[in-house]
Amino acid sequence: MERVLITICGRAGSKGFANKNLKTFCGQPLVYYTIAAALLFKEARPDLAVDIALNTDSQPLADLVAARYPEVAFLPRPAELGGDSVPKMAVFQNSLCRMEERKGKRYDYIIDLDITSPLRTEQDIENALAAIRRDASLDLIFSVTEARRNPCFNMVRDCGGYVKEAIESPFTARQQAPDYYDVNASIYVFRRDFLANSKTNFVWDGKIGISVMMDTGVLDIDSEADFLLMEAIASHLYGRYPQFGAVQKAIRPAQ
User: Fold this and answer.
1) 79 phi and psi, to 5 degrees?
2) Which of 24, 29, 138, 197 could make a disulfide contact with 209, Cβ separation 3.0–4.6 Å?
3) Which pLDDT belongs to residue 79?
4) Strand, coil or helix: what is 223?
5) Whether the predicted model's global pTM rises above the 0.90 cut
6) What gap in Å lies between CA 186 and CA 112, rounded to an integer?
7) Integer Cα distance of 218 and 237 in angstroms
8) CB 49 within 8 A of CB 111
9) pLDDT at residue 14, rounded to an integer
10) What's the mean pLDDT when you consider all of the chain?
């Protein structure tokens, strides 16, 4: 049986949007949407041994998770991994190492789910894991959406007083250009040995594949404006799309 570690990582501080990981989103704590999606995935895949861990230096966040989801392993984040310049991969590595020591086993895959991307379905997680399992040459998968703008045609870069196309190209029609995607930071899936053995904590050192998610407009909450817009979009999705509504309905009620 393959072993999967799902990590949920959140810092205590946030310069862009204070205490964003503790916010109430559409009536429920924001982090509960990520846990609910993770548990739906775990329930749908009894063929996998799945553990879920929270890595944080925020005691209020840890308490919030423990209140309804005591089965989620709590990994207090070391102070050296608490800064806003710390690479995400260093935190993922820390989670992997400590959970393997705690459980006495090696994982095959590590899936990280970002707290600030609540519009994620169980199927999105399944699709991302399936993508890396299909291709043994890949070191990691991350989730993307189809880009709204093509850098060969309708994006520009500042050249100091004037602009030029973002990417110089010979293409005369958008259909000729390569496909481009927006990285939404919602899901990362790592092959265990790539993550464990990385010395640079730089995802681009690996061979990367993608898993395409539905474009829901704003997927990563990093400001109050993002948050308010996301709530409006989420209310529509939860009511109209069963796969999104299932995540909201799966959130455990308070005892």
Assistant:
1) -60, -35
2) 138
3) 83
4) coil
5) yes
6) 8
7) 13
8) no
9) 66
10) 92
Helix locations, the chain, DSSP H = 30-44, 59-68, 88-103, 122-134, 192-197, 224-240, 242-250
Residues whose CB falls within 8 Å of the CB of residue 33, separated by 6 or more in sequence, listed in order = 25, 118, 120, 247, 248, 251
Q: Which amino acid is at 111?
A: I
Q: What is the rounded CA–CA span in Å between residue 34 and residue 247?
A: 8
End-to-end CA distance of the chain: 34
Residue 101 to residue 145: CA distance in whole angstroms: 35
Which pLDDT band holds residue 171 (cuts at 50, 70, 90)?
confident
Distance between CA atoms of 246 and 75, rounded to whole angstroms? 28
Q: How confident is the model at residue 218 (pLDDT cuts 50, 70, 90)?
A: low
Q: What count of other Cβ atoms lies within 10 Å of the Cβ of residue 18? A: 10
pLDDT, tens digit, for every residue of 110-145?
999 999 999 999 999 999 999 999 999 999 999 999
The reported pLDDT for the residue numbered 153 is 86
CA distances for 138 relative to 78, 105, 171, 210, 213, angstroms: 30, 23, 30, 10, 19
Residue type, 186: S
For β-strands 156-158 and 49-56, DSSP reports them as unpaired
**Two tokens, residue 78:** 């070391």
pLDDT in tens, 229-250: 999 999 999 999 999 999 999 9
Burial of 174 (C-beta count, 10 Å sphere; 0-12/13-18/19+): exposed
DSSP per residue, 203-220: GGGS-EEEEE----S--S
| CA–CA separation, 43 and 37 (whole Å) | 10
Strands 24-25 and 28-29: antiparallel
